[in-house]
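Cont'd.
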Amino acid sequence: MEYALPTYSFVSPPELSQGVSTQYPVVVIGGGLTGLTLLCDLLQRGVQAILIDEDDTVGVRGASSRGICYAQNSLEIFKRLGTYDRIKAKGVEWSIGRTFAGEDEIYSFDLAKQSTHNASCQPPFINIQQFYVEWFLVERILEMSPNAIRWKNKLSAISQDENTVALTVDTPAGTYRCAAQFAVDCTGANSFVRATLGINAPRATGVDRWCISDVKFKHQPAKERWTWIKAPFNDDRCVWQHLMADDVWRLDYQMSVDDDPEYVSRRDVVEERLRKHFGDDVEFDLMWVGPYSYRDLLIDEFRKGRVFFAGDAAHVMSPFGARGGNSGVQDADNLAWKLALVLQGRAGEALLNSYHAERREAAQVNIKATARTNRFLTPRSRSEHALRNAVIDLARAQPFARALVNTGRLSVASAYTQSPLNFGRCAGGSIQNVALDAAEDLSAFIARQAGRMVVVAHDRMCYQGLDCVALEAGFPVRFTVLRDDTSEIARQLKLEHGECALIRPDLHHAGCIPAAQIGAVLGFIFHEN
Amino acid sequence: MKIDANIQLPDDFYAALIEAHEGLSEAESFELNARMVFLLANQIADNSVLLACIDAARQR
């Protein structure tokens, strides 16, 4: 069985059909998960951006397999962008994970019971094939702007000066040039833009090999995430067992370093491996198979002049914890509101510098977390093996050792500890999308503010002596008070009486500060930093 | 003897531990682990806890 992906037709752009020469506020290059999220967000914020993509469909043609786990923070972002309901309807929610070594379960967790996840209106995770997430974004974009995505448009040259980015684009109808105030490279790990602009992209390729198999079963396994550190049916190497939409299961088998990638992905070899895993009488339909080896990549500067880098074009990591795709979505979420405010003349260009500080830190944290998991699963020496095995042995009876078992630290919203936009207590953390009352959640409330930052205090008394009207006229900001003093949002913000908290349009906390300082802080965020 | 999670930053600790073994021969790693046992034991101090740990470590 194969997936049927939608295709979109090429439309001759106005540069070719009408001979016009246009400058766009933003050109997004690459229509993968990150690029589509960014375009959707920009359009929703009223920025008439365009996206060029060399293909005419979502996903990668012929390859169904890519990201499958969408973390709570991504789901909160998709809620704001209007695609969450479709993801929820199509995807599979899960919160229970189990880890096995040999025949024994050594550890399990339920994310829904953990305080890091249980305040949000969105679940900890939804599993769904990446192309569905992209497909829903495309359809949402088409509702807003029918020609914003330019299919079969391939970037062939890019250059920039102080004021503009110049792009040359090849299409089936010929080549055209256009200009942009800003461009965002979302073209993935092998970015041509990055190479052209001379961005240093140091990379490390891991030694371990995996074989990914997407399978549809007649009789389904439990709807949980199962991981084996030492799977008896895979020569004591790792196995990941995950569910997706359409009752398809993602099975990742760790291979030996000297296995031939072509051999391990051969259909009959994969089928034999599946029978070893699920029993000789298992009935299944193989959807997709592919070999995979892990690598890391992190660029030095997430911004070069008027060009920004997002998603895999900026950072690549091992898939442990689902940090790759989810961090691309967060990149887009971080950049969109800043670009919109700057392009609308509501903030100075310096606001854009925080993108590099915040998202590079996030990428560093993600790469470190995935590298540690990798190291736990693939020890490099016999002593490292001995330590790892000691942890596994202890974990069966000693709960403390389970905290040391590392089968992936799941993607969470990044905290921006180094941000130039941080002021006061608790600055930089992400705020979960809590319900404000029966009718509205935080994300919907923030979305109603048209790009404004929200200042919140326990009561109006806190703003005494402040000219809130003047501040609201001078900055993209809105002053509010809590609807309910004991609410979850007050707990999330750690807001105390007499101070106010600043909530950014991407639901990050800019800090709890004394109200008297608010004018200076807003000046710094929007005009000086 | 504590059996519930008590190490403040498990992943940081594990990373530091394997980092300490980097580049050592097996014999050197073995000795490093032995020194670690005595250093940690001195932090624990309580004899009944130390004996309980030895007992727990012997069980597989």
